[in-house]
Write a structure and sequence with these properties.
Elements: H1 45-51, E1 88-89, H2 91-97, H3 106-115, E2 117-121, E3 125-132, E4 135-142, E5 150-158, H4 161-166, H5 172-186, H6 193-196, E6 201-207, E7 210-214, E8 221-223, E9 229-230, H7 233-237
Parallel strand pairs: 1-5
Antiparallel strand pairs: 2-3, 3-4, 4-5, 6-7, 7-8, 8-9
Amino acid sequence: MASRQGGSGDAEPLGPGSTERRTASTTAAASRQGDARPRSPPESPARRRARAGRTDRPEYRSVDPPHGGEAAARTPEDPPVRDPSLYALTDHFRERLEQPGRYVSTRTVSDAIRGGQLRWNNTDGWRFALVEGGVRFVVVVSDTETNSPVVVTGWTEVADREAALEAPRWDGVDVDTIAVRAALSESSSTPIPDRIRPRTVTRPFEVGEHRLETEPGEPFVRCTDCGCRFRSKGGITSRRCRQRSPGR
């Protein structure tokens, strides 16, 4: 997957004709009075590219188009491209790749862009979602406000708990970690003790500055560094982690 620092990752281009985008809407042909010849509909960006022999890459709107030039005809409603090699990674997403318990990699992102289900979300915009081993990988992308398409963020959700527990790539702690993290993120300010209580997380995962774990029956997640207990994501992110002194 391409990055802002340049170079390529583990994703390979899909090749010409493999990207998806919605062409600009066309108007119905109309005839003026006394003119029997109908008008031709406006030429779409995709047709312009095809006529120019450039079918392998889409057009993107630059943040700062050349002076006097016309920005590329691409809008938020146009579905994003499905070629992972064209995407860059935001700094926000790079940080997530390094956090324990995220279970998101450049490989899963590439797979989601290539073959995942594409949906529009009013909050995040375009999302790719791919279910593997009972776990849903969600990737949020954008390509209308930057010079190149970017992966904005990504996360995991438990799509089918039984399937996830049976999948060789996950164990029970992995599945419970994904479930707790997703539950905390669904409503940041809402305490969720009943959704934390049945879970077992013995390998700490990171949220904000805290490394969190929980045991069955506990209605909270506990920071292994500072010892603070939390029932909501808002509580976690609003409090800095101050590690306990030795012996405490």
